[in-house]
Amino acid sequence: MLRNTLCRDLTGRFVGCDGRPDRATCSFHDEPCCLRAGDVIQLEVERVDGVWSPLFHRCERHAVAVFPQEHSLYGTPQVLVSTRLDPTGAHLPGTNEYVPDALTVGTIDIVDVSPADEGLRPRC
Length: 124
Fold this sequence. Notes:
Structural class: mainly beta
Number of strands: 6
Order of helices and strands: HEEEEEE
Strand content: 25-35%
Shape: globular
Radius of gyration: 15 Å
């Protein structure tokens, strides 16, 4: 069930940059990190309003074995997945322009799960 919803919501989703849709970046580099079609990345994703949405991109250098505790939130299902960047094309979020070689999420492998009943609790 988890894999089915992840695949439905993430496969084919745009993960490139609006300015360079055929490139993606890692969320954990101080300087620009240029990821291209065929590169393997990890995505930290969470389920919001019934849909899985990416939070952070990780290049192979910044890949982790488990969902990071510092990003895990109580009450929110989160998953760490691995995928290969595919140049399958997408509509850009900012302009809705279709770019035929824009990078998208390819086949998904689940690396780790952070269940909703685990993670950091908000301070009251």
